[in-house]
Amino acid sequence: MDIHQMKVFFGLVNYGTQSGFLARGLRERGIKAFSVTSYDPFERVTDLTLKHSGTNLIEKLYNYVWNKLYLFHCFFYYDIFHFYAGKTLTKSQWELPFYRLFGKKVVFEYLGLDVQKYKYSVENFKYTNIVYRISEERAEEHDYYVSERLRWHKKYADLQIVCAPLYSPFVPSSTVLPLGIDLDEFTYSPKSEQNNKVKIMHAPTHRGNKGTKYIIDAINQLKDEGYDIEIMLVENVSHNRLKEMYKECDIFVDQILSGWYGTASIEAMALGRPVVCHINKEFYKYIDYGDIIPIIDANPNNIYNVLKDLVENKVDLKKIASKGRYFVNKIHDLDNIVNEVLKLYNKKL
């Protein structure tokens, strides 16, 4: 298969701007690629956003019909479909058998709850964020739905990818594709001077998912003990605004429950900010770069001590920041990720 003769569709979720970035990266290699995503309140880069809602019944109906007709057109126009978060062009995914029938290729890239199971997580991980996303009453239903959807996907998918090794146990046949960022958008700018006040930034999209309560409690305890700390709790801002706010902090705290880092950690490291995040080393067996991850590990039981040590030893922050930028350049640079995607396409499709 000559990938340069193929037209590639990315969608319909744009988590971490992956859909938008990869489509753009492939176009820069001379490949016809296009990202189509559902409404995104964070305004991340994409080529086309589907119409959203409406102010009245007629407008809502028009938007609904327009979206359906456009996606119907996409089915016939594109050759490769790179889907995110377990979604396809239709809600019930009835169209999956038809991709192969029409000679098209299907790639699924999983991002989290689309594959993570409740029972396995609580039984095998000391810390897990899933208990804050799925109630115990819904756990069995959730796990069944995930299992059935993965069974359906495996039957028709040409390639299955996970965005982090955290999700590898749930999709045994999958390949880990690290999240990518465009480093041209992130100038390395570590803090030149360390003021007495230490600014700690935390930017949750879902407080329970990130372990926000434990982070805030730890910072408040340190402040009560006299440490000169300011918390930057950043929520409900655009992606462009978020990128600017990273520069204001001294330390970035991502999540302390799920066991792996996400796009926010990568972006903060790229700018030269030390990152605190829970890293479950059991997942190293799924990757070959675990020994160079420069993230400072923390969990609900030790987040206070971790932050206290960083605040008391400010001289180490610049060294950690330097390692972070090197790591992102080596593992998460968009050019490298595009190369990996092309290798996977040529090998698997």
From TrEMBL:
Record has Protein transport as a keyword: no
Species of origin: Halalkalibaculum roseum
SUPFAM superfamilies given in the database record: UDP-Glycosyltransferase/glycogen phosphorylase
Residue ranges occupied by any Glycosyl transferase family domain in the UniProt entry: 222-321
Keywords: Transferase
InterPro entries associated with the record: Glyco_trans_1 (IPR001296)
Entry protein name: Glycosyltransferase family 4 protein
Keyword Transferase: yes
MF term (GO), any: glycosyltransferase activity
Pfam family, one: Glycos_transf_1
PANTHER family tied to this protein: GLYCOSYLTRANSFERASE (PTHR12526), PHOSPHATIDYLINOSITOL GLYCAN-CLASS A (PTHR12526:SF625)
